Amino acid sequence: MFDLRGKTALVTGSTQGIGFAVAKGFSEHGAKVFVNGGSSMEKCRNAAGRIENAIPVLADIIKEEDRDLLYKTTGDVDILVLNASVQYKCEWDYIKIEEVERQMTCNVESSFLLMQRYAPYMKRQKWGRILTIGSVNQYNNHPLLTIYGVTKAAQRKLAESMAKQLAPYGVTVNNIAPGAIKTPRNHKELNDAVLKEELIARIPCGYVGSPEDIVPAALLFCSDEGGYITGADLTVDGGMRL
Asked: Hey, what domains does the chain have and what are their CATH numbers?
C-alpha cells in the first residue's frame, strides 16, 4: 500500500516539521524526494542527509527568480506538496503591510504559481498529485492569526478549484488542515506550561500532535490509493476544529 516507487516528489518547506516528516514518509515508501528550504542550503543538506534518496534544493518560493531556479533544479515531478508558509502572530490592527503581503505571497500566490509550473507535466502523463498543507486556522478565528487564517482559507479554495479543472487529466488536488502540531513554529506555546495547558484543553483527543501524524493522510492523497479522492479537505487536528 502507498507504493511510491518510481515517483518523484517535491515538498516545499521540508527542512523541518511537517514538511520534513512528509518528505521522509514519501522516501520510506519509495519516492525520490526534493527537500526544499528557503533560508539556508546547509539546512537543506542536513535535512536531506537524514532522508534516503533525497536531494536538497534551496529556493525561497516567495521570489520569482527562486521559483524559476526551483523548477530548473527539480524538473517535472509527479507529486507536489505545497507545505512552505509564512506566519506572523499579531493583533489585526498592528500587523504591518509587508507582513500581510509576505503571507499572501507565500501562502496563496506562490501556491498557485507553482501549480501552474508543475501541473502541465502531470496532465501530459495523465497522473499527478498536488497536496496543499493548510491549517485549522482556516476555520478557527485566532485573534493573532487573522491574515494567516485568511491565506489558508484561500489556499484551500484554490485547491478545490484546481481539483475540478485537473481531475479529467488524472491529477488530484487535496488539502490537509493540521491542528496543533509539535513543530518549531509552536515552540513558544508548547514550552510555556500555562499556554500548553490552555491549548490541550481545546483538543478533544487531549494531546498535541506530531508531524508524523500528518504523514498517513499525505500518503493516501499522493498515492494510487487516493486516485478517486480530489478536492478533499481533511482536518488532522485531534478534533480541535470541533
From this structure: 8-236 (3.40.50.720)
- What's the pLDDT at 187? 86
pTM value is: 0.96
Within the chain, strands assigned E span: 8-11, 32-37, 54-58, 79-82, 128-133, 171-178, 233-236
- Comparing C-alpha atoms, which of 9, 3, 106, 114 is closest to residue 55? 9
Choice among 148, 169, 207, 228 that is catalytic: 148
Average pLDDT, the chain: 96
| Beta carbons of 7 and 79 less than 8 angstroms apart | yes
Cα separation, 237 vs 207, whole angstroms:
10
Residues 152-179 have a mean pLDDT of 98
Q: How far is CA 139 from CA 8, 23, 179, 185, 235, in A?
A: 32, 26, 11, 19, 10
Number of Cβ atoms within 10 Å of the Cβ of 43:
16
Whole-number Å distance between alpha carbons of 215 and 210: 10
Q: In what order do the strands lie in the sheet with 8-11?
A: 54-58, 32-37, 8-11, 79-82, 128-133, 171-178, 233-236
Q: Which residue has the cell 505545497?
A: 82
Q: Note if 148 is an active site residue.
A: yes
